Amino acid sequence: MKKEFAILVVAVIIFGVIASGCIGGETSTTQTQKPATSSAQSTSETTNVVIYGYGSEMITLDPSTEFSNSIVVLANVYECLVKYTPEGLKPWLATSWESNENGTVWTFHLRKGVKFHTGNEMTAEDVKWSIERTIRMGLGPAFIWDPVKKIEIVDEYTIKFYLKYPANLPLIASSAYGAYIMDSKYLSKLGDDNAIADWLNKGHDAGTGPYMIDKYDPKTEVILKKFPEYWGGWSDDQFDVAIIKIVPDASLREQMVVSGEIQITRDLPLDDIPKLKENPNVVVDQTPSYQELYAFFNTKKPPLDNKLVRQALSYAVPYQDIVQYVLHGYGEVAKGPIPKGMFGYFEDLPTYHYDLNKAKELLAKAGYPNGGFKLVLTYTQGDEAEAKVAEIIKAEWKKLGIEVEIRPMNWEQQWALAKSDPAKAQDIFMMYWWPTYPTPYDFLFNMFHCEEEINFNLCYYCNSEFDKLIDEAVTLEGTQPEKAAELYKKAEKILIEDAPAIFLYYPDDVYVYHKSIKGFKDNPGYPQVVFFYELHKA
């Protein structure tokens, strides 16, 4: 999941789609210069429309398996039991929940009167069926439900989960991936899981969300129309139609949002943000994300199998300069493996800072007083930020007598090399990570837990003491969060001491929206999602 976004950015650039649209909040707007065959335009001529200019194409539409960009659609069409917000968990399709003392049995009370887009009413049967289907298919984000042993329907609006081990199930049930509730009565008539997936991936949906899929072209646009019977109701200043328009060219998206052709976008050139802040036609929304950039050391290959060398190189990174040069200040230097704002982030963790003298001292202690070795660093081709970071690292480590060969690779090549024999793999692997659901375990387990078969632990790191701490911490998140935090902190200190990766930075989420809309609020728990229902005409 984590790198598919970058690959697709590269891929969709080829298409060079020129998008069309209209000004949000305006009715019966005619854009005569746009192609007459554009369904987006024909829709905009008769309804109120808001358009999200998005940089990457969609992947799939099956809520049980989708693990990438298409959550920007799914989160508007489907709903989870619980909604994550930085302020805490909020009711969504469940109005309340409780657990037994040790967090192994959780009961959710469902919202009554919720209808699916098919007209059927949502009940506990749909919740059970949706989650069991995701578990049964075992693809993409299905692993989030690993704690679940059995799901029991108590009555039409009450459902009980029995867990194999204690877990924070409400947080899992808020996941941006793999936790959406589907209409079991409708979908189960379509056939087996594959038949259902085929139907969904053709652009159909069976959700309860405020919007329904009206048109689906994964390479150009997805048109959503409002669901009149949405349980939350509608006000006159909300949008009847929401369009996700694929516009790979960031400069073009910038022009479009300034002119009002699209109403909201993100991932614009960062050096243009200051002038956009002065433009009265747009609003710049900058908030911390739950994303982090890492450079993983190959801990199985000399000389990086030596902790002292890894520590030395961690001191030889100008973190603050990178944030200024690469992010133009739109982000922060990372303090450990967990993004700021998330549970499991600690402001007072010991961290590495730029200190070349310290780096030289550690290298000498490791037996490399003059460097004298070569390292291969790979990153995903097309990612300008990663390319800039790689060049900075190369220049700094040259001062230590270390040669760095930078290899930009497409994802398939980079991934294949990383999954090969670690003794022959890259020395440094650069990659972003963001949460499947906002738990530190998602970061610490996937990237640093011992693995028999290489998955996302691309530093090939293995420390049983670290594993034991995080494996216990995750079982206490729901019932003893303070104890869980204490264990996570101990584990993160071990990680920083062992230095299997460089923790580079947390980039901010920077959205730019047109003055014709209001109500936008970034939710880092649902990466890149614009919740159209929250938007209103200004």
Treating each run of at least 4 consecutive H or I residues as one helix, how many helices? 17
Low-pLDDT ranges? 1-46
Total count of domains? 2
CATH class of the largest domain reads Alpha Beta
And the CATH topology of the largest domain? D-Maltodextrin-Binding Protein, domain 2
Cα shape:
globular
The proportion of strand residues reads: 15-25%
Helix content: 25-40%
Structural class: alpha+beta
Radius of gyration: 24 Å
Commentary on this structure:
- This protein is of the alpha+beta class.
- The chain has 2 domains: 47-281 and 515-537, Periplasmic binding protein-like II (D-Maltodextrin-Binding Protein, domain 2, 3-Layer(aba) Sandwich), CATH 3.40.190.10; 292-509, Dipeptide-binding Protein, domain 3, CATH 3.10.105.
- It has helices at 4-13, 39-44, 71-77, 124-137, 169-172, 184-187, 193-201, 250-259, 273-277, 307-315, 319-327, 356-366, 384-398, 411-419, 440-448, 464-476, 481-498; strands at 49-54, 82-85, 88-91, 94-99, 105-110, 148-155, 158-163, 211-217, 221-226, 241-246, 264-266, 282-288, 292-297, 331-333, 374-380, 403-409, 428-433, 501-514, 517-518, 536-537.
- The strands form 4 sheets. Strands 1, 8, 9, 10, 11, 12, 13, 14, 15, 16, 17 and 18 form a 12-stranded mixed sheet that branches.
- The two termini are 36 Å apart.
Give the key terms.
538 residues, alpha+beta, D-Maltodextrin-Binding Protein, domain 2, Dipeptide-binding Protein, domain 3, 2 domains, twelve-stranded mixed sheet, 17 helices, 22% strand, disordered N terminus, transport, Peptide/Ni-bd, SBP_5
